[in-house]
Amino acid sequence: MYKVLIAEDEMLVRTGIRASIDWEKFNMYVVDEAADGQTAWELYRKHQPDLVLTDIKMPFMDGIELIRKIRDTGSPTEIIILSCLDDFSLAREAIRLGVSGYILKLTMTTEEMEEVLENACQTLDKVTKTKGSSVAPANLYDVLEHSLLSHLTYNVPSLSECLSTLREYSVTIHPHDLVTALMVVDQYEQLQDLYQDSHGQLIQFSLLNIINEILAKSGSGLVVHVSGSRYLLLFHNEKETRSFHLISGVLSEIMTVLKNYFNVTPHFCISEMTQDLSRLRVLYQQCLLLDEQEFFLFPGSVNHYDSSWKTSLCQTLLTRTRHTLNAFTDPGFTSGFLLQPLEEQLKKEFSSKAVLNIFYDSYIVYLHNQGPGDGDSYLWVRDFLQALSACKNYYEMLEQFVAHAQKLEKLSRERMSCSREILQALQFLQNNYHRQITLNEVSGLVGLSPNYFSSIFKKELGTSFLEYLNRYRIEKSMKLLQNTSMKSYEIAYACGFSDEGYYGKTFKKFTGKTPNEYKKSCVFTTSNE
User: Fold this and answer.
1) Residues 6+ positions from 101 with CB-CB distance below 8 Å
2) Which side of the chain, N or C, has fewer Cβ within a 10 Å radius?
């Protein structure tokens, strides 16, 4: 089929032209649209369309300049201009540059437009016969995307029409060992950042070529870009083997190449195998059903669809969870407060929100049993929620739970090892942080000399008395910044700082922000406590 690019700055005109024409009647499809000349030129270089419909007056680059650039490439691309009556002098210039015809916007009927397209189609047919039947790989990618993927997604075109189109490009899908595999590139955003490819065009080009090379060696597959990080692989065979062995080898090689060259891992959603071409859309839907559970699929995993896939996924999740939670020294806690609720939830429904709530509730219980005094609980909860919110999948969430719970365990062990005098001093600080406190006062309270008290304080807690006191006061002030409308200087005094300037410097030392900057950046409210 011939690819058509529409360049027109008026959206209604673009939409009207695209919708009013039966493009398949002319063996054409619209590959893309542009609202200005510069974008049209970039899309032209990307798609190499056979036919360009372009307005003359457009922002950034007008139609005349676009036509000149296309003609400078030496390409025989057919060009039809979209013009208004007051553009006619420019239209004559365009005709001298070798356009095939023009469509008078707003006045030309659909029949007249189709006549112009019919003439262009006849010219393209002649050029195609002259060139022979060879097709550039980039054209094949576009055909797969606009014919095969469109059939699998919307059932338009029909299967017979889709297969017929592919045969025109010397592509035959054999009716044996049919399997679809949806590949999702993990860490896709990092890959975009690494290659400074926000639109993913360079990544798409690279991955399509790499995967095609691997498939060519096996001689049994096609690949089409679905969207963003997703690629669909279609496997087939001339003879019936009912074996996944060849497919497994291809997927393994793809994973190795992506890891070695891009340092990313893909995970796959694999359909059942069939010997019936008419079930292609069913196979694709199976992949999509698995893909809906992306949050629960392990990065780099190969996930197979079958009648028991939900049970299998549930068991995989619970097995990995038990293994990860072996780091805990309290199996009673992990079983009663985490594993059991997770198992009940996963057997009922795969819900990321429900799982997040289970991790949160379990952490609150663990914080109560193991954690610091009441004064620190808010900050621990806030940090844990921030970490959970950044998680992209179940396994990251599980790792964050373990990491934060282990910090609580460490703190609990440290406090258990503290001497009676230090525990007494800590309790005094928590109750009196809001007023002026001196080292002499606290050391005298616990019956130790100032020097000896400072020595054992540093030995048991790993920080100096003043450092600990300032950190505790800053943590208290952070809660007030989050939950009150008090001024910065009022908070400073309320937390035991006698000087607002010193408070500001100390706050930035511990948090990296000024008190006002922190207040603006706060996301969580007291409802999260």
Assistant:
1) 80, 81, 116, 119, 120
2) C
Q: Could you give the CA distance from residue 125 to residue 129 in angstroms, rounded to a whole number?
A: 6
What's the pTM value of the predicted model, to 2 decimals?
0.57
CA distance 440 to 450: 6
State the number of CA atoms in the 13 A half-sphere of 207 facing the CB.
Answer: 31
Are 405 and 324 in contact, with CB atoms under 8 Å apart? no
Q: Quick: pLDDT tens for 439-485.
A: 999 999 999 999 999 999 888 877 899 998 998 899 889 878 877 88
| d(C-alpha 14, C-alpha 96), whole Å | 25
From CA 409, how far away is CA 256, in angstroms rounded? 38
Q: Which among 83, 81, 262, 252 is positioned nearest to 183, based on CA atoms? A: 252
- Confidence label for 375 from pLDDT (cuts 50, 70 and 90): low
CA distances from 19 to 53, 110, 125, 527 (A): 14, 11, 24, 51
CA distance 461 to 507: 21
Tokens of 154: 């919307």
**CA–CA separation, 204 vs 144, rounded Å?**
14
* Cα 100 from Cα 88, distance rounded (Å): 15
Query: Average pLDDT for residues 153-158, to the nearest whole number?
Result: 88
Could you tell me if 80 and 31 are in contact, meaning their C-beta atoms sit under 8 angstroms apart? no
Tens of pLDDT, residue by residue over 34-68, are: 888 899 899 898 888 888 888 878 888 888 888 88
Q: Which is it for the CA torsion 114, 115, 120, 126, positive or negative?
A: positive
| DSSP string covering 490-504 | HHHHHTT-S-HHHHH
Beta strand residue intervals within 204-323, DSSP E: 221-227, 230-237, 266-270, 302-304
Q: Of 421 and 85, which is predicted with more confidence? A: 421
Helix, strand or coil, per DSSP, at residue 80: strand
